[in-house]
């Protein structure tokens, strides 16, 4: 699986798939080698995995839930 992930990163570099791959594979983001100073971005260097952090997911807007009778709060990602 590591080889598949590596080849996908190489082939799709710069295409914008990384975010969704991290969600799909339930991996956290390690930004410790981003070049930014740790003092400035302490909370952002290692983020929780998508399965434990709801901020990774795209929420259904409340207006859509209110307008569609077939969608409820329990349908949130």
Automatic annotation (TrEMBL):
SUPFAM superfamilies the record matches: TPR-like (SSF48452)
InterPro entries in the record: SusD_RagB_dom (IPR012944), TPR-like_helical_dom_sf (IPR011990)
Any Pfam family the entry gives: SusD_RagB
Start and end residues of each RagB/SusD domain: 1-72
Keyword terms, alphabetized: Cell outer membrane, Membrane, Signal
A GO-annotated cellular component: cell outer membrane
Domain of life: Bacteria
Subcellular localization(s) per the UniProt record: Cell outer membrane
Record-stated family: Belongs to the SusD family.
Name the UniProt record assigns to this protein: SusD-like starch-binding protein associating with outer membrane
Species: Gelidibacter algens
